[in-house]
Oligopeptide transport system permease protein OppC (Catenulispora acidiphila), 350 residues
Amino acid sequence: MADDIPPRDVNDEPGESDLPGTPGGRGAEFLGEQGQQPGLMIDAVTPGGEDILQSGTEPADTEFTIAARNQWQLVLRRFRQHKLAVASAVVLLLVILFATLGPAIWKYGPNDFSNDFSVAPSLSHPFGTDSNGADHMAQVMAGTQLSLKIAFTVAIAGTVFGSIYGAISGFYRGATDTLMMRLVDLVLTIPALAVGALLGKKFGNNWVLLAVVLAGLLWTGSARVVRGQVLSVREKEYIEAARALGATDRRIIFRHILPNVAGPIIVLFTLLVAAAVLTETALSYLGFGVQFPDISLGSLITSGETAATGGRGWLFYFPGLFIILIALTVNFIGDGLRDALDPTQTKARA
């Protein structure tokens, strides 16, 4: 058999037919139909950074290419498909602009008095005036601004503390977890309104201290939810890999665990904003919240209740409307974020 093979000069250059992948050439039997080894997939990256998955010489359909989007871009896309949440975000943004930019634009201040006593809503006073001649729209702007400050301060403080507390409890488990969760159960048994009224009467003249008091009463929900999430991820492979590489417990908690449970934390933040607004309103309505000369939506509700029974309902309805808008829009935004961050959602495909 060896005698049938013609001799080849070692100085000969390989011909086109000898190149692998050339039809009929040597090595063709080792290649697939497209001139590649069977099953070989080549990943190519275009100069623009777009990944192209190639099988042979034909690029795959762009629908199945490796997208350059990161996780948060996918979350944003899913959130935009939640129409009610998007509409709520727009309304909440308008409320925030009304409260922050409105006082700088509007010609009246909350403490500017005039001779227009108890005037119904008109072009010059869209929300009417109170019995002292103060423009009610300026008061609602100031009240909305302070209520939003309190709500976001409570939400940030409560979410951060509760998330860290729950992460530590779920990570260490055992006796540490048992002791920390018993403390959470103890805080949950305390009537929030009663304690808030007791402390709010003392700290109501300082809205920052009032926000700290509310955060100290509302953080437990975040702790319980984050603890449950941490218990489900602490045994994942990437956590074990971090331990094997010598990562400290602090690094594992803050760099690996908490970022991977960010979805529920964000939803908890939005729910805590709504809870803080309603709690502050309830305390102010009872006379234990924000104290004069500060103005909040809750204090406006309190002062407007008696006016509403006397035929000046606008002093009650407008603050109530803004409380409802803030509470509802924040809750709808939380629902949209929950659906967008939930990996089991299949309606919005990237």
